[in-house]
Write a structure and sequence with these properties.
14 helices, 11 strands, six-stranded parallel β-sheet, alpha/beta
């Protein structure tokens, strides 16, 4: 094993954004003898960029870790810094936890190692000529079961976000609103097709295809995600359903029976493990960007002792044995039937949860992921 390596990154003091993910990776690296530095600042406050710039230039780590960000964006747009002024961080590890086309619009630099949470995006990224392109999926950051709490006890629970895009939608001409509406609804009907595929199949006008720049792509994905989550959960309102998430649930459920089921935010560290352990069925709805990989909930829920019922994605079988280590549904009718089935069969829920927890602790921890990454890079 190569020893003495070091890495730098940054986070908001409150761990907003990707701070928790960076801490998970750094803790795993430290177990392998690396030294780490996570610079902290109030990222939305005046002077935050100056503070991070000074910290970066004073640091002498070998590696720089960025999440959902290229180094060109980090240096030039975020810090207003010429990359040549950074004399130490010779290698940049870029980890994308979403569709990387949201963030990449030019060729990668030779010193960037590109890691994707979902390897179905490899072909799209090869067009930007990465020196190294690796698969680095999410994993569990929990190790201990959550403590059941009567406060969170319910038949069905869901934790996740929505994004109110009313303002963005109003900025679009009526014709473009109708076109994006058609793209989103077609995407929901044919989830395996990307929006890139759909803009070719459904041109804006004969011979005219719209350009999916990051802003347009972001709008389309969130429209699809919002509608999918709302439509699926509305099928469960006859049950004791609890929903936790950001405040955008309020305007988007104004005329929905889900409004009274929404209970606000939940702390991902202090409260979420207890919710997982207390709800009889935890619902998982992957973002439509997940073609071949899973989200954090797939791994954390079983470790916390929670039974998780997830929507099937093509890559699920590579992580868990379906119906033995994890439970899945496909579509609205199957969701309703599976929820009813598992509510009526607690022993089966416990069996799957126990097997899923064992699988996660064996194969899907951040220590395991980091070990695989370092091995691939020749650092183990």
């Amino acid at each position: 094993m190569v020893t003495g390596c070091s890495v730098w990154s940054y986070s908001d003091i409150s761990d907003r954004g990707f701070g928790l993910f960076k801490r998970r990776i750094f803790a795993a690296l430290e177990e392998f003898g690396w030294s780490t530095r996570l610079a902290l600042a109030e990222l939305l406050s005046p002077g935050a960029q100056d503070k991070l710039r000074d910290d970066l230039l004073a640091d002498s780590s070998d590696f720089l870790l960025l999440i959902n960000q290229t180094s060109n964006h980090f240096y030039r747009q975020y810090l207003n810094l010429d990359p040549r002024e950074d004399q130490h961080h010779r290698t940049k590890i870029l980890w994308f936890l979403d569709d990387p086309r949201f963030y990449v619009n030019q060729e990668f630099a030779p010193d960037e190692i590109v890691c994707l949470f979902d390897d179905t995006y490899f072909e799209a990224m090869k067009g930007f000529n990465p020196r190294r392109l690796l698969h680095f999926p999410l994993a569990a950051d929990l190790s201990e079961p959550g403590k059941p709490d009567e406060k969170y006890a319910c038949e069905v629970a869901f934790v996740g976000g929505l994004q109110d895009q009313a303002y963005r939608r109003k900025q679009l001409p009526e014709e473009m609103q109708r076109y994006t509406e058609r793209l989103v609804e077609t995407k929901l009907a044919t989830p395996t097709k990307s929006f890139d595929d759909l803009t070719e199949e459904i041109p804006y006008a004969p011979g005219k295809r719209i350009q999916l720049d990051p802003a347009v792509r972001h709008f389309l994905y969130w429209e699809a995600n919002n509608r999918r989550r709302l439509r699926l959960l509305e099928q469960l309102t006859e049950l004791d359903l609890r929903i936790y998430g950001n405040e955008d649930w309020l305007p988007l459920t104004e005329n929905s029976p889900l409004r009274e089921r929404f209970l606000g935010r939940i702390d991902p560290v202090k409260e979420l493990p207890s919710l997982f352990a207390s709800a009889q069925v935890n619902i998982n709805i992957h973002s439509v960007q997940c073609y071949g990989s899973l989200n954090q909930r797939d791994f954390n829920a079983p470790v916390a002792g929670g039974f998780l019922l997830s929507d099937w994605v093509p890559g699920a079988g590579r992580y868990f044995q379906p119906e033995k280590e994890a439970a899945y549904y496909s579509g609205i009718e199957d969701l309703r039937a599976k929820v009813r089935y598992y509510l009526d069969h607690p022993a089966k829920r416990e069996e799957i949860t126990r097997a899923g927890r064992e699988r996660v602790l064996r194969d899907h921890t951040y220590k395991r992921r980091v070990h695989q990454l370092l091995e691939t890079l020749g650092l183990m």
